[in-house]
Please model this.
Amino acid sequence: MVLMSSAAHAGKPNFKAGGVIFGIQYGYGIWSFDREHLAKQVGAVNADTFIGDLQNTHNLGIRFGYNVLGHASIEASVSATGWNLTEATRGGGGFVTGSLAWHPLELLWMKREERPIPLDMNVYFGAGWGIVGQRRGMDGLVFQTGFNVEYFFAKSIGVGLYTRGTILSWSEFYLNYNERVGIHMNEGSGGSHWQFGLSLLMRFEAD
Model:
């Protein structure tokens, strides 16, 4: 049974077949906001409180997608970051997004029966919803872009590097999120959250 299981997972993926991709991601996230842009809309004290609470720290993510013939894929992803999680002052943020990705290496090796190395990469764009907060908070529309580089050391298992940039387009600033008390930002929040890290991947090829 062990030999049969090993044989099933040996070899290279057939990228041309497409299939389902599931990934777990771990990395580091970095926040960026324009303090003057926020202060103009919500006041200097609120802007300083919000930005002062944010922490650049660890990030976790899950992605699930379907690849079409090695060329493109559609994916959904969830990512989150948090700090002071065991304390009353805990804070954090998260994003739920859908995206479309292009896999350029399929064009490079499309005339080959299989790729010379079990490597894939993609660049993607998407949109969704996000939230962040501690003493002050925001939520709303986000846009995402990024890329993945992936190496499969077995037919169904691989590792990778990823970069994800989330561009924030929030219009609500919360003084009390639970009671939905806040300030509407006519000029939008601006700002971004960038993630960098490692991926563990599972690939299930289409028949």
